[in-house]
Amino acid sequence: MAIDDTNSLKKFLSVFPSDLQQTALWLRTFVWKLYPHSNELIYDNYNALAFGWSPTERQGHVFCSIAIGRTSHNIHFGFYWGSEISDPEKKLLGKGNQYRYVLITDKSDFPQAYIIKLVKEAYANSLAKVKDKTELVKGRTIVKSISEKKRGKRGKKSTTVKKG
């Protein structure tokens, strides 16, 4: 089962402080327990490490995600189509056309009950976007991209990261 498939993610997380690693893994478990048949898509990008859950292998179907900034070390718990879900308590940040998120500074401040409601709505919204139901796959962890160059602590490029 993908919840146990942590090797790649732990490798990508290893460059971050241990408290951020622990919070990210805690958030990951939070989502996997709610949606164990979804797929985890991992993007080890230049500016951030991001991983999200989708009923397919497509980024456009991601319903929620976790992102850690390489220089800011901010953790976002986000919604790829956040502008399309309700936010009655106005806890989501972001003013763009699509993405919305909550900033996680401490897991004790994470509004779990509220986020569960939003994730449920985001999941239904994501499923509605899947036109070809043969694309549905279940319970996989998939590394979608690895940027060779990573942004360093003060905005500088770090060395090239080797795959494997």
General description of the model:
Helix content is 26%, strand content 21%. With 164 residues, the protein is α+β, with helices and mostly antiparallel strands. The chain has one domain. The relative contact order is 0.19. The model is unreliable at 154-164 (pLDDT under 50).
In spatial order, strands of the major sheet run: 5-4-3-2-1-6
User: What fraction of the residues are assigned to beta strands by DSSP?
Assistant: 15-25%
CA(first)-CA(last) distance: 21 Å
**How many helices in DSSP terms?**
3
Number of domains: 1
Q: Looking at the structure, what is the overall shape?
A: globular
Number of E-state strands: 6
State the helicity in percent bands: 25-40%
| Average pLDDT for all residues | 86
Characterize the largest beta sheet: strand count, sense, and whether it forms a barrel. 6 strands, mixed
| Backbone structural class | alpha+beta
Order of helices and strands: HHEEEEEHE
Report the uncertain regions: 154-164
Radius of gyration: 15 Å
